[in-house]
Predict the structure of D-3-phosphoglycerate dehydrogenase.
Amino acid sequence: MFKVLVSDPISDMGIQQLMDASDVVVDKKTGLNEDELVQIIPEYDALLVRSQTKVTEKIMEAGKNLKVIGRAGVGVDNINLEAATKRGIVVINAPDGNTITTCEHAFAMMMALARHIPQAYAKTIQGTWDRKFLGVELRNKTLGVLGMGRIGSEVAKRAKAFGMDILGYDPFLTEERAEKLGIKLATVDDIVRNADFITVHTPLTPETKHMISRPQFEVMKKGMRIINCARGGVVDEMALVEAIDQGIVAGAAFDVFEKEPPEADHPFLHNPKIIVTPHLGASTVEAQENVAIDVSEQVLHILRNEPFKNAVNMPPVAPSVMNKLQPYFELGEKLGAFAAQLNNEAVQEIHVDYAGDLAEVDTQPLTRYIIKGVLSRHFGSDVNTVNSLHLAKVRDVNVVVSQASATKGFTNLISVSLKTQDGAERRVAGTLLNGYGARIVQIDKFPVDIAPEGHLIFISHNDKPGIIGSVGTLLGKNDVNIAAMQVGRKIVGGEAIMVLTVDKETPKEVLGELTKLPEINKAQQIAFA
Ligand SMILES: NC(=O)C1=CN([C@@H]2O[C@H](COP(=O)(O)OP(=O)(O)OC[C@H]3O[C@@H](n4cnc5c(N)ncnc54)[C@H](O)[C@@H]3O)[C@@H](O)[C@H]2O)C=CC1
Ligand SMILES: O=C(O)C(=O)COP(=O)(O)O
């Protein structure tokens, strides 16, 4: 049974599928502080949050069973991603579910700003019929959009319908896409100099922190207005207050703050030209259902070990590529595990080669499984597909991937070679045979045909008559039943290998006895976790 903790207010309707799942128990405990979370997190497999819960390294460290953190929304700046990756915890978000809602909030803020709606409302309900609030039209005004991702693009589309001229900047915005959206591709400098309204829609990164600060305000059009429904800190709060005092900025609308909630004496809360909302950008019935549905679905997949999308701490993979790779995941992991068990020395380099059908796709997700297989010998359940590449890196294990080799007659072939400190190299190759499933087809230089499952005994020996018989007799005497056997050699009388599939684990003593048989150099068990 998987236990899921929901620590922020998340739509009940959205998490219904989690609550209905027979293998999941959901607990809702909101408003907990770090220490309280540390206390209870050990029993949970998954944690679901919005932006309030700060998922710190301390919480993750305590979360020994934690496999996934689901963010019902876009921004993951409240989650320590590095700590999650290190511990192999998948972080997923729901990037699409609140785009329109947040865009509409930014638009609502822009209109409220243009027409002083919050200020006029406050006066009116106080009994003052004050008609001095003189607004501006949006029509024919220039809107600068910083960050033309999902939300920024939707804002631009709506602004066009209002007759605005739009300047957009985003490092990934191409001339072609700008043209398609009917906007002008601009620089940050163009935007700050020419816009009547600026709206920011970027994440908060070292690059975007204070991207609008004193130098930018100084060159702005007098009377411009600015909106931030993205992240506190993209616009420098103190520089904005100064720019308002200097008469440069006529008004600002902020949904987000550098520190949330802001202190009671925060200048934004006492400035009649600044309108504020308490991080409500994503707060609509529709968006909350959308993000909760998306995140619940992915959490279920992850808990059940099924393919998932939107992992923030793993690179994105197109569904078409994922469909192609998925059948190889198990084989990849087993090849890695097999190769690792052939070695006693510390691994220095893992070389993975993909051939045939796998030669032209982005195989990184599959490589993660292979590396997991290799490292699991030493890291056990501490390694998974999220942290396998990271663990290899911190342990100075060089991972080399190539996609160039010949297929040796197979339609697909994965080869895993491990180089160890003593200079030795061991190699295992496998394939997926149409209709027959996974096969190991090569061990070192020996061609074989082995189903990578169950309990295997790997024996290296000299190719002499009578060896198969003596091995069979010894195992039989010890009640180890052989289900299948493969022998491989390159030349008659030379080095040879034997791989036996047996019905159960072979006791260590029996392996020891096998090694003592004449002409046998080594006998070891190969297990697939
Ligand atoms: N107020 C609220 O409740 C909500 C806030 N957000 C925030 O809105 C922001 C945008 O969200 P989405 O559009 O969904 O994300 P997105 O990832 O689709 O778009 C962000 C864009 O910012 C661009 N960008 C990154 N660095 C930049 C830079 N230095 N200059 C200009 N552009 C840069 C990226 O290339 C990307 O296109 C995020 O910070 C998100 O956390 C999102 C939802 C709700
Ligand atoms: O999705 C985002 O990035 C947001 O900022 C929304 O935050 P929330 O889920 O409303 O706490």
About this structure: The chain is about 35% helix and 25% strand. The chain has four domains: 2-93+286-304, 98-276, 316-453, 454-528. The chain has a mean pLDDT of 93.
